Amino acid sequence: MDSTPPSSSSSRFDLVSSALGRYLPHDRAAGPGPADSPADPAGHPPEHDRHAAGRPEQILGAVNLDRELRVTHRNLDAPVFAGLDAAIGRPFVDLLPQGDVPTVTRRLRQVLETGEAHVARVQRLRRTDGSELVVSMSILPAAAPREGLTVSVIAMARRLHLYAAETAIGTSLDIGETAQSLAESLLAWGDVAAIDLDFAVWTGERVTDRAQDRIRLRRAALVPDRAWPEGYVTLGEDLPSEASRLLARAIRRADAPRSIVLPDRAAIERVLGSPRLVRALVPGERSAGVACVPLVLEGDPPVVLGVAEVWRRADRPFADSELFDLQELVARTSHHVDLARQHQREHTQVLALQRRLLPRSGGGTVETASVYQPTTPDSAGVGGDWVNSFPLPDGRTALVVGDVVGHGLGAAATMGQLSMEARALLSAGLAPDEVLEHLDETVTLLDDTDSGLAAGYSALGSTCCIAVYDPVGHRLALSNAGHLPPILVSPDGRAGALPVHPHPGLGAEFALREPFGVHTFAAPPGSLLALYTDGLVEDPALPIEEGIGRLTEAVAAVHPWDALQQAARQVVSEVMPAHRRDDVTLLLARTIGHRKGDTATWRLPAREDAAARARALVSALLRQWDTRDATRDKVLLLVSELVTNAVRHAGGPITVRLIRAGHGLLCEVGDTGNGRPRLGRGRTLDDRGRGLHVVHRLTTRWGVRWTESGKVVWAEVAR
C-alpha cells in the first residue's frame, strides 16, 4: 500500500467501513468478530458460513482521486483486490474495461461538479492478468481537507450483489434508466447484457398476454458501451419480427414463461436459422453462449414484459447456480419495470395534454412562441404549468399562463379544465377579471370533499395571468391571480416587469379574497411580452426578484429580427436554474397590430339620425378601400341595424369601428347599455328582435363583449 487515508473520523473510507462493517461477515484471518458464532448443536457451521461457503468474502476498498481523476491514495490491501494496478498518479479509468470508460468518466465528473454522490453502481474492474472483478462501486465527494473524489469498492458475495443490484435498479421511474441498471447488474454473469422490452412497455400501455405473432420487442438497454458489428440490434432499435417471435416462443414453453440457455454459437445458429438474425442478435463473431430470462409480471396468467439476455464466451458455460441467481435478480426487478411502465403511461398522458394546451397561433396580429420543459423524466408525472394563446372572435388575442398546484393526472385534469374554461369565457366576451372570478370559483368547487380532497388532490393556491391584446388600440388588458408579473419590452428597448396588484391566487379563503383588477398597458407594434411560470426564475440560492431581473435582461436582448421560437429557446437556456425543482414554461408574444389605414373609429350621439350618419361614414370608407358592391351593401345594412339597436335599447354615445383584417371586415358598435342581445325564435307577427336575425344572416359570426362603460356588439362579414 502506497498511502492510506488519515484516521480522522471525517474520512470517507472510515465512514463507509464503519457503516458496512455491521452487515458484512468478517475475515476469520483477522480474528473473531461479531459475525462469529459457535456451531449449533447439530454441528452445522454458522448461518452466514453456509451461504458463503466456496465464495469470496465481501471486502471493502477505497481509492482517492484528484480533480484530474488520477489516483492520489488507495486502500486495496485485501487479497480479493490482488492484480488491480491502482498505482499513485495513474488514471483511475485504466482500471476499467474499455467500453465502460465513457460512462464511468461521465459519472465521476458529475459528482465532482454537483457534489452529489453516486452509489451502488455494479462495475467490473480489470486485473493485470486480463481477468475482471465485479464490485459495487460508489463515488463520493472527498471529505475535507482533501479535494477530489473517494471511490469505494466492495468485492461482493453473490447474495449481496443481488441485494445491491435490486436496490440500484429500483431508484428510477424512467424505463430506459431502469432497463440500463438491470443490464449493468447482469454484467456480473457475462460479457454482454441486453434488455429487450415489449413495445407496449415503452408507450405505457397495458401489457396483455397477446398472441406470439404480435409480439414486438425493442432494445431498451445494452452494455457495455462499445462499437458493435454491422447489422446488430443496438439501443432503441426494434428486433426483427422473426426474432421477436422466436424469443417469445422460446420463453413461453409449456404455456409458462421460462428461461432458456443456448450454450454455443452452433446452437444459436441452429435455433435462429438465418444469417440475418444471427447478425442482429449475436454481439460478435466469437463463439458465444446466451441465457435468456423473461421479465415476468406475476398474475393469472403471468404476463411477459420482455427478455433479459446475458452473453458470454462458450468456454464459460452457465452453471445451474448462476442461472438461479440470474432468474432471481430478474424476478426481483420485473416489478420495477412495470412501475416504470405505469409511470410512463401517466407521463405520456399528462405530457400529451400539456402539449395540447400549448399555443398553436396567436392570430395575424400577434406572433407567439413557447417553450415547455418538464422537470426530469423521473418526476412523478408532468407538472401543472400551462400557457395558451388564441385569437378571439372579435379580432383581439388572448395570452394566458397558469400554474396548477402539484404533478400528475390530478394536476393535469385541473389544468385542462381551467385552460378550456378560460378560453371559452374569453371567447364569450368576458373581461379578464371576470374570467378569473369564474376560475376562482371553479378551483373552490373542485376542492370540495366530494371531488377534490377525496381524490387526494387539492388545487388551492393555483395561479393564473390573463392578458388580452387589442390590435387596434395597441393596448394590453391584464388581470393576475397570484402569478408572477409578465415582462414587457417596448420597441425602444425599455424593459421591466409590469406593475400589477398582487392577489392571493385561485381558491383562496373567503376572508382573503380580493376583487380581481384589470390593468391596462400600452403595447405598440414591435413590443415583446413574456409570460412564464416560477420554474424558470426560481432558484433556491437566489431571491426571486433576481431571477425575474435575469429574465428581463434576457428578453430585452431579443432582437426584433430574431426568429421568435429560437429566441424563446435561447432565453430559457440562459435563465433556467441549474438545479431546477419545477417545470419550465415560457410564452413570448410579439405584437404586430393592425395598420392605421386598416381601421377607422367614429363616435356618434345616440340620436334618431345616428344610423344615417353611420351609413354615410362607412360608405365613404368602403369606397376608399375599394370594397365590392355586394360586400358594401351587407356592411351598410349591418351597421344600420346595430346602430339602430344601440339607439333604441341603450344609451350614448355610440362608437362605430370598422377593421379590415385578412379576408373579412369586422364591424363593432359600442354603447353604454349592459343588456345582452339575444337571438330568439320570434313569432310570425312579433316585430321585436328581427334586427338580430338580419345580423345573423349577413355575417359569418357575431358576438358581444363587455367593457367598463357598457358593451360592444361585433360582427364579421366576408369580403
How would you characterize this protein structure?
By secondary structure, the chain is an alpha+beta fold. 32% of the residues lie in helices and 25% in strands. The protein is built from 17 helices and 25 strands. The strands form five sheets. It has a five-stranded antiparallel sheet with strand order 2-1-5-4-3, with helices on both faces. The longest helix has 37 residues, at 320-356. It is elongated, with a radius of gyration of 35 Å. Residues 1-56, 377-381, 449-455 and 683-687 have low confidence and may be disordered.
Number of helices: 17
The main β sheet shows up as:
5 strands, antiparallel
Proportion of residues in extended strands: 15-25%
Structural class by secondary-structure content:
alpha+beta
Number of strands: 25
State the assembly state of the protein chains: single chain
Q: How would you state the average pLDDT, rounded?
A: 77
Helix content: 25-40%
Q: Span from first to last CA? A: 90 Å
Low-confidence stretches: 1-56, 377-381, 449-455, 683-687
Shape designation: elongated
Which strands sit side by side, in order, in the main sheet? 2-1-5-4-3
Estimated radius of gyration: 35 Å
Give a quick rundown of the structure.
The chain is of the alpha+beta class and 719 residues long.
Task: Provide the descriptors you would attach to this structure in a database record.
17 helices; 719 residues; elongated; 5-stranded antiparallel beta sheet
